[in-house]
Design brief:
mainly alpha; two-stranded parallel ribbon; 2 strands; 89 residues
C-alpha cells in the first residue's frame, strides 16, 4: 500500500503532485490495463494518506466500470485488494 503522495514522489520521469489529475489518469490507465488482462485493479494499492486509508473516488468509478459491486465501498476495496495480492504476491 502506498499513498498518492508516496507514488507521486517515486515518479522520476515527470514531476507531479498527489492531487494532480494527471497522476489519477496514469493510475487509471495502469489499473485498466491490469484489469483487462485479469490481474485486478492495481490502483487498489494507492490510498489516502490519512482518514479511511482507501483509494479515492476514481478507483470506485473504475471498479464499477469493470463490473465490481461498489454499493459497499469497503467490501469492494477489500475484495479487489485480495485479488491483486493473489496475482502479485
Amino acid at each position: 500500500m502506498l499513498s498518492y503522495g508516496e507514488l507521486a514522489n517515486q515518479l522520476t520521469t515527470i514531476r507531479i503532485e498527489p492531487h494532480d489529475p494527471k497522476l489519477w489518469a496514469i493510475i487509471g490507465d495502469v489499473a485498466s490495463d491490469e484489469a483487462t488482462v485479469g490481474r485486478g485493479l492495481l490502483s487498489v494499492v494507492v490510498v489516502h494518506k490519512s482518514g479511511d486509508m482507501e483509494p479515492g473516488p476514481g478507483f470506485y468509478e473504475l471498479a464499477k466500470y469493470f463490473g465490481r459491486k461498489t454499493s459497499d465501498k469497503t467490501k469492494c476495496f477489500i475484495a479487489e485488494l485480495h485479488l491483486v495480492h493473489s496475482q502479485w504476491s
